[in-house]
């Protein structure tokens, strides 16, 4: 029996695996760092307003990647389209290191 971790997910984005992701489908905004955006060869589609984190701190946002198609590695036929805000600050960089990105 395969055990699936529902808190941290592995996503397929642009034919690359991104490990240790957290998505909140009910959140107003999901966020990634600029470094991860660049490693995934994504581009900012348009400007975006700054957001507040869960502890009400201001998070400076560079822009948003619109209509990004993301699939779940454990459920490859489940594809969602979402907008991802891109932030400069590397607060969670340990979760999104180069080792987390692996070519398929």
Total number of distinct structural domains: 1
User: Which stretches are poorly predicted, pLDDT < 50 over at least 5 residues?
Assistant: 92-104
Return the CATH topology. Cathepsin D, subunit A, domain 1
Characterize the largest beta sheet: strand count, sense, and whether it forms a barrel: 6 strands, mixed
Report the C-alpha radius of gyration, rounded.
Answer: 14 Å
Largest sheet strand order: 3-7-6-1-2-8
What level of helicity do the residues show?
under 10%
DSSP, total strands: 8
What's the CATH H-level homologous superfamily? Acid Proteases
Chain-averaged pLDDT: 79
Tell me the series of helices and strands, N- to C-terminal. EEEHEEEEE
- Taken from the alpha-carbon principal axes, the silhouette is globular
Structural class call reads mainly beta
CATH architecture: Beta Barrel
Helical stretch count?
1
CATH class division: Mainly Beta
Could you characterize what this model shows?
With 104 residues, this protein is mostly beta strands. The protein has one domain (9-96): Beta Barrel (Cathepsin D, subunit A, domain 1). 6% of the residues lie in helices and 45% in strands. The chain contains one helix and eight strands, in the order E-E-E-H-E-E-E-E-E. A six-stranded mixed beta sheet has the order 3-7-6-1-2-8. It has a two-stranded antiparallel sheet with strand order 4-5. A hairpin with a 5-residue loop joins strand 4 (51-52) and strand 5 (58-59). The longest helix has 6 residues, at 34-39.
């Amino acid at each position: 029996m395969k055990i699936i971790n529902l808190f941290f997910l592995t996503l397929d984005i642009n034919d690359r695996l991104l490990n240790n992701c957290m998505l909140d489908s009910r959140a107003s905004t999901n966020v990634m760092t600029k470094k991860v955006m660049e490693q995934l060869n994504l581009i900012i589609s348009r400007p975006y307003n700054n957001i507040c984190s869960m502890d009400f701190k201001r998070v400076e946002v560079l822009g948003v990647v619109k209509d990004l198609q993301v699939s779940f590695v454990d459920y490859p036929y489940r594809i969602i389209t979402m907008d991802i805000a891109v932030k400069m600050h590397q607060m969670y960089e340990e979760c999104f290191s180069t080792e987390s990105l692996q070519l398929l």
